[in-house]
Specification:
293 residues
Length: 293
């Protein structure tokens, strides 16, 4: 199969412009949303076909606190933020992965990414399945219920099938494998991760997922520091990696940036004909993986 299926994809990494807890949640969110708009428009003008934003893109990463005021940041999905981006997606015929804080009902919140097709229509959503509670700085169980939608994939009208994994999910190969089994050709992982404990894993785990499952990955991390929590520097370094584990494009560690890369999806067929990991799986021998420890 020699058909060249090249797709121009983009990732946006950005710092939070309002580090002021005296401002309302709505004001802080509005500032971050407005900051993203020119970068989203730039992606469209550059011909990006699929664009992914960072984890909870329209605000800071508030999980170092345990402050119920941030429940005000949650919204329906689809809801106001997703609906504001639909016309832009349609204008540029640019599919989008839009990570936001989701409110399903009073007191039930998820870390979610909505998926928009090239015509701006809403295709569905992924809810982050693995929720960390790591001291200090990552108190996500205070804010998010574990996802309950499994590991869906989304077939775009362009014919490309994408999947979503969110931040801490990347430490779990099981979901990454399921996305491949479900047909994902590109998996996007919007994240918020700081220098320190897991930084060495940033360029290790996701290339490994790409190789083990024979798909592309787009990995996004925000940049800068965020007051008042100051848990460390978000080190950016967003990148695309191909099914061979090679880095296709990579952003800097310290500035707002749109990363654009042309992904040749025909490589997937080439790689999977060489490494028959899906053929040689032994699901009959994996029973212990789904037993409670």
């Amino acid at each position: 199969m020699s058909t060249n299926r090249t797709v121009k994809c983009g990732l946006i990494q950005a710092s939070n412009p309002v580090n002021d807890e005296s401002r309302s949640v709505a004001e802080i969110q509005a500032a971050m949303f407005e900051k993203h708009l020119p970068m989203i428009e730039e992606a469209g003008k550059r011909g990006v076909s699929i664009l992914c934003l960072q984890e909870i893109f329209n605000g800071p990463y508030f999980c170092p606190s345990q402050d119920k005021r941030w429940y005000d940041a949650a919204e329906l999905v689809p809801g106001p933020t997703v609906e504001k981006l639909m016309p832009i997606a349609k204008k540029y015929k640019m599919a989008m992965v839009v990570p936001v804080y989701e409110r399903e009902m009073a007191g039930v919140y998820y870390n979610t990414a909505a998926v928009l097709d090239h015509d701006g229509s809403y295709l569905g959503k992924y809810r982050k399945n693995h929720i960390p509670q790591v001291n200090p700085g990552f108190y996500e169980k205070y804010y998010f219920k574990p996802g309950n939608l499994g590991y869906p994939v989304f077939k775009l009208s362009s014919g490309v099938t994408i999947g979503v994994y969110i931040c801490y999910d990347r430490h779990f190969p099981e979901g990454a494998r399921l996305l491949g089994l479900h047909g994902a050709e590109i998996v996007f992982n919007p994240s918020a991760t700081v220098a320190g404990l897991s930084q060495y894993l940033w360029k290790l785990e996701q290339p490994a997922h790409a190789v083990a499952n024979g798909y592309f990955m787009g990995c996004i991390n925000r940049v800068g520091t965020e007051a008042p929590w100051n848990i460390g520097k978000f080190y950016g370094s967003s990148y695309f990696v191909d099914p061979k584990g090679s880095f296709v494009a990579q952003a800097s560690e310290d500035k707002d940036e749109l990363v654009v890369a042309d992904l040749d999806l025909s490589i997937i067929e080439e790689v999977r004909r060489t490494w028959q990991f899906f053929r040689d799986r032994r699901p009959d021998s994996y029973g212990d993986m789904v037993k409670d420890v």
